[in-house]
DNA sequence: GCTGAAACCTGGCTTTA
DNA sequence: TAAAGCCAGGTTTCAGC
């Protein structure tokens, strides 16, 4: 599926998607067209899911990140479906996981300040029945990246070099 | 700084950065050039920090997300500086927060499976002195977005419409 | 906000291993 | 025959006005 050259392309694109195809080709030792075709293929196959602009949270007035650990006694599919729907429509929720272990779900929520979190929290519990919620706040975001590690990809078989 | 039109631009670009400037202009009721100039300004001001390609974690063989809560007794700047440096160089760590409350730091780590997490964990504790680590695994990523909520932006004053 | 030049993307066709 | 390279036409970006 993905070979060494594809991986190099992905590495470049998930770091900076503004780099022209010709330049990417140059960096990996390929001319424009084959490089472009590889990118097309990676998009068709769904390896690349999209290209987005990233914003500075401070400039957007969302300085506070809260992690919300949720426990529930509702363990049926219908409840989860509804819960997921509610969460999907709340733009403050950046991430939402179903967890193993003590807590059932984990949210990462971005808001301007603690007051705004409180307002968010009230809106959340008004919309859905939750047994127990425990929130912890982040003081500082030391690292945040959308880049995934590419060293675990199962590489396509290639001809061995001479 | 940012007005209503800028906000619309940001909304579009953080959803899909492949849309041509002319099309963005059309959607917000602006011709190409002024729209382009606004985007330039948003980039210069650092509101837009970059454009990146997003990848499908499954296709990249990183199916497992682990949250790692770290407690330490080292509370000096030098230790944190070194810790941050170590983390920055580990591509499996997507996010890294300094927390308020019981746990000192929180990591979001992406790896192929539990075995790979174990290997990561050993590499981590070999590199840095940590008192206590508690890991919880996500079973499912129900929502993940890089989009920030734009409804909290302090909008620039505008002329009232006639 | 318009216009035009330069850069870039995109697909058909040719070449190479 | 599968993948790389060449080249031309159309689109997009971006600076002057």
TrEMBL record, chains A, B:
InterPro entries noted in UniProt: ArsR-like_HTH, AsnC-type_HTH_dom, Dimeric_a/b-barrel, Tscrpt_reg_AsnC-like, Tscrpt_reg_AsnC/Lrp_C, Tscrpt_reg_HTH_AsnC-type_CS, WH-like_DNA-bd_sf, WH_DNA-bd_sf
SUPFAM superfamilies per UniProt: Dimeric alpha+beta barrel, Winged helix' DNA-binding domain
CDD domains (UniProt xref): HTH_ARSR
Residues covered by the HTH asnC-type domain: 2-63
One Pfam family cited in the UniProt record for this chain: HTH_24
SMART domains the UniProt entry points to: HTH_ASNC
Listed GO MF terms: sequence-specific DNA binding
Domain of life: Bacteria
Gene3D superfamilies, per database record: 3.30.70.920, Winged helix-like DNA-binding domain superfamily/Winged helix DNA-binding domain
Cellular component GO terms, alphabetical: cytosol
Entry keyword set: DNA-binding, Transcription, Transcription regulation
One GO-annotated biological process of the protein: regulation of DNA-templated transcription
Name of the featured protein: Transcriptional regulator, AsnC family
Organism of derivation: Bauldia litoralis
């Amino acid at each position: 599926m993905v070979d060494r050259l594809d991986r190099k392309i992905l590495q470049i694109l998930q770091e900076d998607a503004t780099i022209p195809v010709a330049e990417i080709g140059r960096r990996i030792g390929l001319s424009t067209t084959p490089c472009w075709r590889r990118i097309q293929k990676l998009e068709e196959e769904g390896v690349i899911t999209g290209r987005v602009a990233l914003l500075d949270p401070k400039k957007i007035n969302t300085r506070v990140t809260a992690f919300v650990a949720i426990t529930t006694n509702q363990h049926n599919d219908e409840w989860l479906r509804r819960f997921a729907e509610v969460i999907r429509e709340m733009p403050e929720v950046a991430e939402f996981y179903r967890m193993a272990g003590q807590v059932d779900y984990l949210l990462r929520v971005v808001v301007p300040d603690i007051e705004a979190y409180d307002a968010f929290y009230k809106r959340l519990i008004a919309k859905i029945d939750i047994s127990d919620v425990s929130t912890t706040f982040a003081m500082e975001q030391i690292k945040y990246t959308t880049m995934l590690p590419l060293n675990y990809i199962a590489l396509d078989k290639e001809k061995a070099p001479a």
